[in-house]
Design goal:
Length: about 200
Amino acid sequence: MMLAEKIKLGFLVSGRGSNMRAIIDNCCAGKLAAEPVVVISNNVRAAALEYARQADLPAFHLSATLNTDPRKLDEDITEVLVSHGVDWVILAGYMQKVGPRLLKQFHDRVLNIHPSLLPKHGGKGLFGMHVHQAVLAAADIKTGATVHLVNAEYDQGAILSQITVLVKSHHTAESLAQEVLKAEHLLYSQTLQGIIDSTVELP
Ligand code: GRF
């Protein structure tokens, strides 16, 4: 009997990469039937790149500072993902728009996680602490995180899964961010496993 091949994950990251790490750790621990194969960052100083190198994963810095032609940059990123046999592209704190070439190559196979219950508090300018400040300013009683497919617009692809975090009177934007981030670490791997097991519905 042939064992099914694990799906291969390629990460796009810009910063600390805690979501990427949670996914890689779950893969290594056998809790997620997937294999991280490559990490790309637009930020040469991203902690995520350093982590990838320590984990012996191929890690690339590809950015507009090195490549000023956006079309070529999009092609180069796509080429690295394709040449590493990536099945699913995982955005994990990637602070750039994904290019059309990549979206065509990996149609409906690019995931992102956003720290709110989309469609609330998503779109341009709503990232990081801005999201949690907006939740508090709106006096929302609940927030959370959303995993969605990526299309050409910020935070607008099909929603695949969500996790809820209740907003309490003691919450500050910082403490809310911490709680939501913990929930993100659970949700991203669970959603990926759901895709693998076909329990998460894809469009
Ligand atoms: C997370 O809050 C994620 O929802 C958002 O960017 C942040 C990335 O955090 N897209 P990390 O780099 O994974 O720690």
